[in-house]
Amino acid sequence: GAPLMFTEWNDKRIMKLHRNKRVKMFQMIWGVSAEKSYYQILGVPENASAAAIKKAFRTHSRNLHPDKNPDPKAQELFMKIKDAYSNLLKTGSKETVMMKQAEANVQTLKFVMDVLIVGMPYMFQFLLSTFGMVYGVGMYLKARAQGKKFQGKTAYAAVEFTKLLESQAHIEVFNRSDSDPGLKEYATKWLHPLKRAIEHKRKASFKVEYPEEKMKEKLVEMKGKVPKDDKKKVVEIVSFGMVHRMMYLLHKKLLLTVYLEDYAKKDEIHLEKEVKDLDDLITTYTEELQAFGEQVEEAYDLNALLEDPSKLMSVLRYKFRKELHMESDKRLEWMKGLMRAPWYEYPVDRYMQQLSKYK
Predict the structure, then answer these.
(1) Rg of the chain over CA atoms, in angstroms?
(2) What residues pair up with 35 in beta bridges, in sequence order?
(3) What pTM was computed for the model?
(4) Beta bridge mates, 3
């Protein structure tokens, strides 16, 4: 018989003809190269008796005989069945058939081994080429990552660091001028927490710690571009800094509200001191901001920092879901640490992809 995969019969017709699961298995494993035995053509096991062989032949003949099925493909298959039937029923032919099948299987195995031996160098070459390509892509990505290692962990973090550094440059240049002592007092007062915030952001806001020398060089470069007596810009920068600090504290307060209302109302007594300290800070900085506004004749709408508290609370629940779902003891320690930390250590960059509108 011909190799099973090279016949024009589809799986459905073959299975109708050979009502034997072994045929399907044979097709899957040996169908590409091995030859079907006479037993497989008739759909009977190799230990089938003569009566079983005759019965299988008669069954197939009723469907495939040229007198009953004019389809040329049926006639071709009938001839294969007839040939198998004749060979199996010859006297003493069973041993001959088994020997022929064994020889065919040996030839098939030799063919497969020849293909593997000839194809092995090409396969090895393909694997080397693939490995080389993957290695090259990996090195490219590594080099690209090294080139961007001083990028911020988020777009917000990188912009915020630059904005804070720019604020320091403007204030230090302005403080060397003889302009507006009242504004200079507020600018100097804001400069100290600003420097602490910049130092923390230098270490925490980047994938790799931002080098101090590189930061100093950038600061000197910024100072060289700053006008010496730009009062309007300094008012804007100090306003931005104070409002920015308030935004951090108000967001921290909102996260605390989410924590107590949704996850751990019972922990309120354990956080009593932290809650009081946070409220005192918010009150102090709000009064300081209002006093500065009166000094420079500016008004600040702090409510705009929380335009949609319910939406922001949903964002906080999602962005801090890992911490909020920790075990109760660990969760409480995390919240205490967050409340006690300075305002600039609150991880607002997790969800703020742009700066406050008070720029």
Answers:
(1) 42
(2) 3
(3) 0.54
(4) 35
- What does 71-131 look like in DSSP terms, one character per residue? -HHHHHHHHHHHHHHHHHHSTTHHHHHHHHHHHHHHHHHHHHHHHHHHHHHHHHHHHHHHH
Model pLDDT for residues 207-255, shown as the tens digit of each residue:
677 788 888 888 888 888 888 777 888 888 888 888 888 888 988 998 9
Closest CA to 297 of 237, 239, 228, 229: 239
Sign of CA dihedral 69, 73, 79, 80: negative
Supply angle C-alpha 244, 304, 279, rounded to 5. 60
Asked if 283 and 229 count as a contact pair (C-beta separation under 8 A), the reply is no
Among 335, 337, 338, 312, which residue's Cα sits nearest to residue 324?
335
pLDDT in tens, 248-289: 898 899 898 888 887 777 888 888 888 899 999 999 998 988
252, 347 Cβ separation under 8 angstroms: no
| Tokens coding 10 | 């589809």
Angstrom distance (rounded) from CA 22 to CA 43: 9
CA distance 289 to 354: 22
Report the SS3 class of residue 152: strand
Q: How far apart are CA 359 and CA 179, in angstroms?
A: 23
Residue for token pair 């009502």: 19
Reference 346, options 201, 155, 194; nearest CA is 201
Helix %, strand %, coil % for the chain, to 5? 75, 0, 25
Tokens at 337, concatenated: 């640490």
